[in-house]
């Protein structure tokens, strides 16, 4: 059952000065409130310190409590999980900072702030994290406000995103919740991957590891949506990230997510959860998913510039393949020890960026 967020202390941080001198500004609409998805148990704010702007994520403990109690959980276990979630995400960002992962949004500061009570409120200490500010917002909002973003810039953002995934996987971390609202745009023509709250670490137990779908269901790969359990780290975690990346690609170029495109071409009785849940349902649904995928690829290819068509469709096909065993750069999958080859996708986008520059020069010469 979805629990709707209600105003509480986490919604009244505006105007407060935090212990390290950060001044909390206006509350920001993010996730479902901004017309997107996700949000889970957090409230967002603009903050600044000595003229430096940043982004604050406050933990909404009241919503977390209501959601947990609605599911029959105890108060102690709910609060314990929220403490673990806070520690896990801050530790994860420390790991990323130590490994110098430059395409992952950084946590600048974190702590806890007391908020004066209203009425009979009991939860008044709010944990928070402060992250570097993406002055362009997330890619979903950025493209909505800047409809004339050129192909070169889109390719650059996508190259940065897959590079961010490559960096995360290199330190044995899977994102699990990659989607347009978690791709952050910075003013110097760079994108970074944000929000590691649903991430999983290969070398330790993560808070959401027990969930069949750790992140947003709208971006989950078919094997998860159809209830096909996987234990192998590469299959369950890394290939999930790759499918979600393919969905970011289709959103950036065609304004539609991969799952939406697939479902448009599937009858209702073949979509999860109607066709899901039973043993073997993913295998039974796969032929229909592959047909829908082929139709979507053809449609997208028809709406692509000729110079971009073949390469971009190949990337989408290899990254977003409904059959998880086929998901990954083709040459890397054929190695003795199969790899996903995210570095190959980075190289693919770098080549396409160069191609786009050449095409722009051709167009300019044609005009002259």
Architecture overview:
With 368 residues, this protein is of the alpha+beta class. It folds into two domains: 9-132, Phosphorylase Kinase, domain 1 (2-Layer Sandwich); 139-366, Transferase(Phosphotransferase) domain 1 (Transferase(Phosphotransferase), domain 1, Orthogonal Bundle), CATH 1.10.510. It is 43% helix and 14% strand. The chain has eleven helices and nine strands. Strands 1-2-3-5-4 form a five-stranded antiparallel beta sheet, with helices on one face. The chain starts with 22 loop residues before the first strand and ends with a helix. The relative contact order is 0.10. The model has no long low-confidence stretch (mean pLDDT 89).
How many domains make up the 3D coordinates?
2
Q: Roughly how many Å is the radius of gyration? A: 21 Å
pLDDT averaged residue by residue: 89
Report the CATH superfamily of the largest domain.
Answer: Transferase(Phosphotransferase) domain 1
CATH class of the largest domain: Mainly Alpha
Number of helices: 11
Spatial shape: globular
Give the end-to-end Cα distance, rounded to a whole number of Å.
61 Å
Poorly predicted spans: none
Largest sheet: 5 strands, antiparallel
Q: What name does the CATH topology of the largest domain carry?
A: Transferase(Phosphotransferase), domain 1
Counting helices, strands and paired strands, the structural category is alpha+beta
Q: Identify the CATH architecture of the largest domain.
A: Orthogonal Bundle
Q: What letter string, H or E per element, gives the SSE order?
A: EEEHHEEHHEEEEHHHHHHH
